[in-house]
Design goal:
mainly alpha; two-stranded antiparallel sheet; 59 helices; 1% strand
């Protein structure tokens, strides 16, 4: 039972003035307190003579029974002492209650008695364990609710009424209140409401007190609801069917009595006070004259401890106060407008209190819940369209609470309220005032602030084909309302903005790192599958539910398009739906009927015409359409209302006939109780439609009466009459609630909710799918955001543009950032791009302003500063998902650069950041900001040595013409500091320093934006912008070394375009060249697979215009030197070294660049540190370039020759490490050696004597130091032909043709060359003499010696050569003799040798081959013994046999 749990209910006791709870009095203390109250009552009574001694006829005198009872009580209380726990409170309460109930007492006496009872209740004398406490409380309530007193003056009357309220409230609040019965609680509410009603003609204090007491009563009663367990909440005799038709019944009859169950009279709102009511004309007031009679006939449930039954009745009574507004009769003195607000506000306030305290517990008790679902919500819908902002505000508060506590039970009701009330008011469908619109907007925004409101609206309605797109409607409304059209910003605009931002923030809070990005829905369904009444298989499985909802939303979107086609041409509409597989390829009646039944937005005229057609298919569709309705438990008129809501009844009688036949057949099939057959249903349906037209058509003057309607329907029920009560009920239902036949398309907002529409909604609620809770719907945020983002960005942008209040601007920025976060989470790049583009417009950085103008305007423009920080915050946080918006961001950065406000660290790359020791934050702007806030031109090209006289002269002119900048004002300095602080907050440098973390596509877009942003207002500014972009591009490239291939092609092409288009030195081409070198320098250690690609890019340096190359040659060479020194070990390929040596070689003849160039070459070649087969020939050629160069002194050429000569040992080293089978490599080394000696031979003819002679020496070293190198005879032959003989030919030719002044001491050079030839011949003799072509070499040696002998210097022969050549020849011949290579046996070689020798030294043969020895050689063949052939390091050779 309900009362079983009431033992634990304890209400707080009354607080004393000092704030402490009173201690219960016991024993003598209690007796004293009651005694004082008795004395107080008696004292007041004695003031009136009527309460004095009464003398009887026999001279006896008697006191009044009320006085006697009080005096008797006084006698007893002191005798009870310690027996109070065994004393029933009724004993000491009854005398006071008798005074209260007596009709002989006046207001003062009644008031004192009420005060005494209140005092006893307040001091907690009564609790749940008190003996017979239930009887005591029953007596108190009965006495107070039936209180009678004689009214003497208005003031005393009001006092008594206030004390009545006081006592009744104390009964509800006391600790024993759980012992009150349902009947007594209802009596208490009855009485209090009567006082409220009477107070309307009394003083302000009584009015306020009575209303406050009523609120307190409702709060106390419904605060108990959460503690009541689920159970049967029916009253046995008073069980009402609060269903879909309950709103048609008045809760109270004309006399104001509760229907059934014996509850006390309440009195109808608005009627004149009854004669026995509270009056001020001296008559007695009677609140409970029927209490005793009611108690006798009461249902047993009413006498149980109070719980659900009384709450149902009280809540039903509160709802009835709203219904009663229709029956109010206003007197001549009443104020209809005031009353129109007063009663509903009072009733709505009480209802709101009940819902606030009952909360979700209403859902556990069906009778309470059905009251809310039906009667209450219908009234809320109707009062929601009131013209009073106060009423609307209270209605919206109730709906907000209902959503919070009971939304799962009020699915369709909430949809109807949002659509038919809130959205309707906001769209001014019925001329709503600004105040009403503001209240509606506040409510909508409050709902949007609920964490899951929009998600639940989207999942339950937008993803339901039979419901409106509530989420989309709200979004569109808020977006539209945020736009101020031809008017200044108002509170509604700001509220709408708050709503959009609240939606966005709600998504933001639900979003996690694991927020799923759903798969893209297919463009078309594969085939038709019936979906009209399909429900999700498992609402608890999130994945299954989300997939189901997304699919239904997709279908609904297609259905909406199909409905639009249908409304233009029904046939084409159906064909379209077939093409997208929402209808089967071959139409069947069921699918078309479902399309008409469940699709929103159809033109009801077209639907009605289609259903009324006479062809067989249309008739089948009509029958299937009728079968889609469930009419069970419905009256005929209500069933007809529901049926006709979906289409407009056609005008032709035959079509009407067919439609009503289908309806009648379906209705009779489901409701055969009263009607005899379907024909009876058909005739009665016709009659109802005719009655509806008759009653509600203004052109019909004479209306049909009830008797007429009953007479017209005689004998239609199978030849019999229908019950009169049944027809009467139909008649009154139609008269009161018109069946509206509308052609309005479902796509627009519904009409104002009237009872007729409400019946259809309640019918639909029986079949509605379960309310989908918030927990499952975060997975739909992606779909919702796709709909929300566009309107939100547009609305925020408009508000941000027009408002100046800083708090609103901050709200807008928060909205922008919330949208950005969600867009980034869901990879919605286009949304993020649109957002950034919109924000960039507010930064003022894209406008052409002078630095002075910008400084002052930007510092004062809060909007621009906020927008700027927001743009760069988005770039830093969500740069991964930016695409085309990078262009706008780069443009903003360029504007700041042109204005001189960027941090100096902006261009630093990752390596720079690592190297820097202490500077970690943004620095002051790179321009001289401490001296001036005006624009400072970009720093000039760094000082460089130039071989151009014009270049140096122009620098001098620039220095002479430079003027000091103007000094800034204090205002400018303050503005400048403010801007610097904003720039610090932007962290622009982080965008590029952290670019290594950007996604590939975003990074590519960023680089393309830097490449394409190259325009300024003039040529100089254009170059400045281009330089800055290039520096940023290089920074980004260096920061992304691990994925350089993403950027390399575009970066290289960009630098190549700059280099190839530059014909004069300039800052841009300088940055391009050195940026390219920097990239190579930084990336070579990390990207071995890109080494060749990077080094090949340096060919751009070789393509520089001559003037450009000359200007930067030294700096380029320095960079190349650093690159080589740092990365030489990484360069392994011939291609890479060819590019490096080419860059080094071109510096050999440059005055400034040759020194670092030669240093670079020395680093590579010294001691063979970095020589390799891949770069050997290249380095030899480069060294030859330096040795031949006349730039600098001869010592550099000598050092170059040393590098060349020393490189032969590297060849020997490589050769020794090779195995005998490495033939190819040995051949390659021999070729390198040959290239080396050829290069040295070319330097041996240098004009400078020192260089020439040192070259011959290095050639000799290379030729004689080749012992470790595997050289074949063929190589030696080539060496003699291409090197040695060629060298002597050139030297002799120079000595003969050139002036001795130009080539000094050629005699010495020729002598050294002859010595070289002699030594090489002797070294290679063993390999050469066996070769068939040795004779050719030998003849060449002899011919060159002969030429040297004949050579004259300054007209004279050289004594030195004439002494040297024979001696060298003799040594060679002796070696050949000792080796058996020269003997008379070979007549041809012998004769050839001596033929040439005689021309050189005629007597030499006799010295080598004396006559005696020669004869012996001719007589016998000599045996050549192996011996030691000693060849000194000097000029002679000694032979030992």
């Amino acid at each position: 039972m309900v009362g079983a749990n009431k033992q634990s209910k304890v209400y707080p006791s009354i607080r004393m003035p000092n704030g402490n709870s009173p201690q219960p009095l016991r024993g003598g203390g209690l007796a004293c307190m009651i005694n004082s109250e008795i004395g107080a009552v008696l004292a007041v009574m004695r003031r009136n003579v009527r309460w004095g001694v009464r003398y009887m006829a026999d001279d006896d005198h008697l006191e009044h029974p009320l006085i006697i009872s009080l005096k008797e009580l006084r006698k007893m209380i002191f005798s009870w002492q310690h027996q109070w726990d065994n004393i029933s409170p009724v004993l000491y309460l009854q005398p006071f209650l008798d005074v209260i109930q007596s009709d002989e007492t006046g207001a003062p006496i009644t008031g004192v008695a009420l005060s005494s009872v209140y005092k006893i209740l307040s001091f907690d004398f009564l609790d749940i364990n008190t003996l017979k406490v239930d009887e005591a409380l029953s007596k108190i309530v009965d006495a107070v609710t039936s209180c009678r007193f004689e009214v003497t003056d208005p003031a005393s009357e009001e006092v008594v009424l206030m004390k009545i309220l006081q006592v009744l409230l104390a009964c509800i609040k006391c600790n024993a209140s759980s012992k009150l019965t349902n009947q007594h609680v209802c009596n208490i509410v009855n009485t209090c409401f009567h006082v409220v009603h009477q107070a309307s003609s009394k003083g302000e204090l009584l009015q306020r007190t009575s209303r406050h007491t009523m609120h307190e009563l409702v709060r106390c009663i419904f605060s108990y609801l959460p503690s009541i367990e689920n159970g049967e909440d029916a009253l046995s005799d008073g069980d009402r069917a609060h269903g879909q038709e309950a709103h048609q019944q008045d809760a109270y009859n004309a006399e104001g009595e509760l229907l059934g169950n014996g509850y006390v009279i309440l009195g109808r709102v608005g009627e004149s006070p009854p004669p026995d009511g509270f009056t001020s004309n001296g008559s007695n007031a009677d609140l409970g004259n029927k209490t005793e009679e009611a108690a006798k006939t009461a249902d047993p449930v009413t006498m149980e401890p109070y719980g659900i039954p009384c709450m149902v009745e009280i809540f039903h009574f509160l709802c009835s106060l709203l219904n009663a507004m229709e029956n109010i009769d206003f007197g001549p003195r009443s104020n209809p407008i005031a009353y129109d607000e007063d009663v509903p506000l009072f009733a709505l306030g009480l209802i709101n209190s009940a819902i606030e305290l009952g909360g979700a517990s209403f859902s556990r008790h069906p009778k309470l819940l059905v009251l809310i679902q039906d009667e209450l919500f219908l009234n809320l819908m109707q009062f929601g369209l009131s013209m009073s902002p106060l009423i609307l505000s209270k209605v919206c508060s109730i709906v907000h609470n209902l959503y919070y506590f009971l939304r799962s039970e009020l699915k369709l009701q909430l949809e109807a309220f949002c659509s038919s009330v809130l959205l309707r008011i906001m769209q001014s469908k019925h001329g709503a005032s600004y105040q009403l619109q503001e209240v509606a907007m506040e409510t909508l925004v409050d709902l949007c602030r609920q964490p899951y409101f929009i998600a639940e609206m989207y999942g339950n309605f937008d993803c339901n084909i039979s419901s409106s797109n509530l989420f989309e409607d709200i979004v569109n409304l808020l977006s539209k309302s945020a736009f101020p059209v031809n008017a200044p910003m108002s509170a509604i605009h700001i509220l709408a903005l708050d709503g959009l931002i609240a939606m966005t923030k709600g998504m933001n809070e639900r979003m996690t790192n694991e927020s799923p990005i759903p798969e893209k829905m297919p463009s078309d369904l594969e085939s038709y599958t019936s979906f009209w009444t399909v429900a999700c298989e498992n609402y608890n499985d999130i994945d299954s539910l989300v997939a189901f909802l997304r699919n239904m939303k997709y279908i609904k979107r297609k259905l909406t398009i199909g409905a639009d086609h249908f409304n233009q041409d029904p046939k084409k509409g159906l064909e379209f739906l077939q093409s997208v597989h929402l209808l089967p390829e071959k139409l069947d009646p069921t699918s078309v009927a479902c399309f008409f039944r469940y699709t929103k937005g159809l033109d009801k005229n077209f639907v009605g015409d289609y259903l009324g057609n006479h062809d067989d298919f249309s008739i089948q569709v009509l029958n299937e359409f009728a079968r889609a309705f469930d009419f069970r438990g419905m009256n005929l008129d209500n069933a007809l209302r529901v049926f006709l809501e979906n289409f407009r009844l056609p005008g032709e009688s035959q079509k009407i006939q067919r439609v009503l036949e289908a309806f009648s057949e379906r209705y009779y099939e489901q409701e055969p109780n009263i009607l005899a057959n379907k024909d009876a249903a058909l005739v009665l349906s016709y009659s109802i439609i005719l009655l509806n037209t008759d009653q509600h058509n203004t052109q019909v003057k004479k209306k049909m009466t009830e008797e007429d309607f009953i007479r017209n329907n005689r004998r239609i029920n199978g030849g019999n009459d229908l019950p009169r009560d049944y027809l009467s009920e139909l008649y009154h239902s139609i008269c009161q609630n018109e069946i509206r036949l509308t052609s309005e398309q479902g796509g627009s907002l519904p009409l104002m909710m009237i009872p007729s529409n409400w019946i259809g909604l309640m019918h639909k609620s029986k079949q509605v799918t379960p309310f989908i809770s918030c927990d499952s719907l975060a997975h739909l945020d992606y779909d919702m955001f796709a709909l929300l983002s566009g309107p939100t960005i547009a609305a925020i942008s408009v508000v941000f543009d027009q408002v100046e209040r800083e708090d609103v601007l901050q709200t807008c920025v928060e909205g922008f950032l919330a949208v950005a976060k969600i867009a980034a989470c869901y990879n919605l790049e286009e949304v993020l791009d649109d957002l950034v583009v919109s924000l960039c417009k507010f930064t003022n950085l894209l406008h052409s302003l002078s630095p002075e103008e910008f400084t002052l305007t930007f510092a004062e423009d809060t909007k621009a500063r906020m927008a700027t920080v927001a743009v760069f915050t988005i770039a830093n946080r969500y740069g991964d998902y930016l695409r085309t918006a990078w262009k706008n961001i780069v443009d903003c950065i360029l504007s700041l650069h042109k204005l001189g406000f960027l941090p100096s660290r902006l261009i630093s790359d990752a390596a720079d950041n690592v190297d820097s020791s202490s500077d970690t934050g943004l620095e002051q702007p790179s321009t001289s900001s401490k001296k001036t806030v005006a624009h400072v031109p970009p720093p000039p090209v760094p000082h460089r040595k130039s071989s151009s006289f014009i270049g140096r002269f122009s620098q001098l002119l620039y220095l002479d013409t430079e003027e000091p900048p103007p000094q800034p004002t204090e205002e400018e300095l303050a503005a400048h500091r403010s801007i610097i602080e904003v720039i610090r907050e932007c962290h622009i440098d982080s965008i590029f320093a952290e670019s290594k973390f950007l996604q590939a596509e975003s990074l590519s877009q960023l680089t393309q934006s830097l490449i394409s942003s190259r325009k300024g207002n003039n040529v100089q500014e254009d170059e400045t912008v281009s330089v800055f972009c290039l520096e940023l591009l290089i920074t980004v490239t260096l920061n992304n070394r691990d994925r350089i291939m993403l950027l390399w092609q575009s970066v290289y092409e960009h630098i190549a375009n700059i280099v190839q288009s530059s014909t004069m030195p300039g800052l841009l081409v300088e940055k391009a060249v050195f940026g390219l070198l920097k990239i190579c320098h930084r990336l070579l250690p990390y990207k071995e697979n890109l080494t060749d690609e990077l080094l090949k890019s340096l060919q751009l340096v070789l393509k520089l215009d001559a003037r450009v190359a000359d200007a930067y040659c030294e700096q380029i060479t320095m960079e190349v030197m650093r690159l080589v020194k740092a990365n030489a070990i990484q360069v392994r390929s011939h291609v890479g070294w060819r590019m490096i040596t080419s860059l080094i070689s071109i510096t050999a003849r440059h005055p400034e660049a040759s020194e670092p160039g030669f240093e670079t070459l020395s680093f590579v070649m010294s001691d063979g540190a970095h020589l390799s087969p891949a770069n050997y020939v290249l380095c030899i050629n480069a060294a030859r370039q330096f040795s031949e160069s006349h730039v600098g002194n001869a010592s550099r050429s000598v050092k170059s020759l040393d590098l060349m000569g020393g490189s032969v040992f590297s060849l020997a080293k490589w050769s020794k490490t090779l195995g005998s089978d490495a033939t190819k490599m040995h051949h390659d080394i021999a070729e390198m050696w040959l290239r080396l000696v050829q290069g040295l031979r070319k330097v041996c003819v240098d004009q400078r004597e020192e260089v020439r002679n040192h070259a011959i020496l290095m050639l000799q070293l290379s030729l004689t130091g080749a012992e470790g190198i595997c050289l074949s005879g063929e190589i030696w032959l080539q060496c003699f032909d291409l090197v040695i003989f060629k060298l002597l030919d050139d030297l002799l030719e120079i000595a003969k043709e050139q002036s001795p002044k130009d080539y000094r001491n050629m005699e010495s050079s020729i002598s050294n060359s002859v010595k070289l030839m002699s030594k090489v011949l002797l070294q290679s003799l063993q390999d050469l003499w066996r070769m068939t072509s040795f004779a050719k070499v030998w003849v060449g040696v002899l011919n060159n010696m002969e030429r040297c002998m004949k050579m004259k210097f300054r007209g004279k022969r050289s004594e030195k050569i004439h002494e040297l050549v024979p001696e060298l020849l003799k040594n060679i011949l002796l070696v050949m003799k000792a080796g058996g290579m020269l003997a008379p046996i070979d007549d041809s070689f012998w004769e050839l040798t001596w033929l040439h020798v005689k021309n050189i030294a005629p007597k030499l043969q006799e010295e080598v081959f004396p006559a005696k020895e020669l004869e012996q050689l001719h007589s016998k063949q000599p045996v050549i013994e192996e011996g030691n052939i000693l060849v000194s390091s000097g000029e002679t050779t000694t032979t030992t046999a």
